[in-house]
Design brief:
D-Maltodextrin-Binding Protein, domain 2; alpha/beta; single chain; Lysozyme; 12 strands; 3 domains; 5-stranded mixed beta sheet
């Protein structure tokens, strides 16, 4: 009966397009600059702008809330990376499809790899409750009666993949895009079984959506495909995703010989300007770009320190692909982030927290620190924060945070890798000491008494 009540005014009358979405890596989140980001957000913003409408975004706590908003006609569209399924098509109307997804049974590395669905009988399989993956499992169960699963009331597949990675469960169902994003910072995830043909992804509308809105959607996606903009947007958010894997010592040593020698002087100069250990800055640069000054990501970050356009502007960097400007700008940014960390926090925790902010953004870091305090953990200690950071990607926590969802697990992975690279460089490379003064602040774990004179 809710669908029979008064509907929201069409956007061509109100001038406002109301879209409901979810906090997740492939839909909507706030980036490290605190700005709205995400594939679905950008697509919805382009649709609204192209029609001269203002975009109002609502964030659903879970799929049930998203579906209710549609059925009650409180929104015009749902843009939540929604698969088109027969069951859903009975209740909602879909716009043109703009992507495909494959479903995978993802299992933990180390357990006997299932060769077929029958091999899952003695394994714990988890799936997001109320998700479209349930339809797939029910269909497959018709041919494999031994197939069983545990529905989990979580906000995203990402949480289940973390449970697989940490050994809390054996397997989980996830789509390929989410899996590739998660593999950037979670280890031990194995694509075990392909669950069938790719499924179409599309925006959803209330069943009785105005014909005018449906026509506008069709025209918009036709324009996006014809111009190549849809493909470019997909490449920006998904085309670059590659698992980082474990640290490859051979490649690190090879690039140290081939690339670091040409950059060492620039790192020295950045240390002179900021007082930060050049080896720490070099470790950040290796993690970001493998010391490639021309590195460019489709997500918009570029250069040896992989600066965003906004960070580059703040740090006075005119050309992010100029290695001198990038290194000095990145060093100034790290220094700025360090100054935002409370003075009571000492090194090395101070530096590791600043590095988390470098990857995640200061706002998300403060969200995580407040969460740590509420959980009885120490927000000033990296040993506690490394455990808390992944929680800000979980729906039940993210919904209560000021800045919402963020890939905290990725930030933890970033810091831990930088720590490892930094430790290796401290063993392999002498400190740079200008004049006769030892290296100053910003040398976490250093003795402070090294007095090698730099050339």
């Amino acid at each position: 009966m809710a669908g029979c009540g008064p509907a929201i005014e069409p956007p061509h009358k109100s001038g406002e397009l109301v879209v409901i979405t979810r906090n997740s890596p492939n839909t909507y989140y706030l980036d490290r600059e605190g700005q709205p980001a995400g594939f679905e957000y950008e697509l919805a913003k382009r649709f609204a702008d192209s029609r001269g409408w203002k975009l109002r975004l609502e964030v659903a706590e879970d799929l049930d809330a998203l579906r209710s908003a549609l059925e009650e006609r409180r929104v015009h569209l749902a843009a939540g990376w929604l698969a088109v399924t027969p069951e859903r098509q009975r209740h909602i109307r879909y716009g043109p499809s703009y992507a495909e997804e494959k479903e995978w049974m993802v299992c933990r590395d180390g357990i006997p790899r299932p060769q077929g669905l029958g091999d899952l009988a003695h394994l714990r399989v988890e799936v997001v409750d109320d998700s479209s993956h349930l339809e797939t499992l029910r269909r497959l169960q018709g041919h494999h009666a031994s197939l069983h699963w545990v529905p989990m009331r979580v906000s995203s597949e990402e949480e289940l993949l973390e449970r697989v990675s940490t050994g809390l469960t054996d397997c989980a169902v996830a789509d390929e895009v989410t899996l590739n994003l998660a593999k950037a910072y979670l280890t031990g995830l194995v694509k075990a079984l392909d669950l069938g043909q790719p499924r179409l992804i599309a925006w959803a509308m209330p069943w009785r959506a105005p014909m005018g809105l449906r026509d506008e959607l069709q025209a918009f996606f036709t324009e996006m495909v014809a111009s190549g903009e849809l493909q470019r947007l997909q490449s920006r958010y998904f085309g670059w995703q590659e698992p980082m894997g474990d640290v490859d010592l051979f490649h690190f040593m090879e690039r140290r010989t081939e690339r670091l020698n040409d950059l060492r002087g620039l790192f020295y100069q950045a240390q002179v300007e900021t007082g930060l250990d050049w080896r720490l800055l070099a470790a950040i640069a290796y993690q970001e770009s493998q010391w490639d000054p021309r590195a460019v990501s489709p997500t918009g970050v570029r250069g040896i320190m992989m600066l965003t356009a906004e960070t580059a502007d703040r740090m006075g960097v005119e050309d992010r692909l100029d290695p001198r400007q990038s290194i000095e700008g990145g060093a100034r940014y790290v220094k700025l982030l360090l100054s935002d960390i409370p003075e009571r926090i000492t090194d090395p925790d101070r530096t590791w927290l600043a590095l988390a902010a470098y990857n995640l953004g200061q706002g998300h870091l403060e969200d995580a620190r407040r969460l740590a305090q509420s959980l009885g953990r120490n927000p000033d200690a990296w040993s506690d924060m490394r455990d808390v950071l992944p929680l800000i990607a979980r729906g039940r926590y993210a919904a209560k945070l000021r800045y919402g969802y963020a890939r905290g697990g990725e930030a933890r992975h970033f810091v831990e890798n930088v720590r490892l690279f930094y430790d290796m460089l401290r063993r392999l490379e002498p400190p740079y000491v200008y004049g006769f003064a030892s290296v100053g602040p910003g040398v976490p774990g250093g003795s402070g008494g090294e007095t090698i004179i730099a050339p």
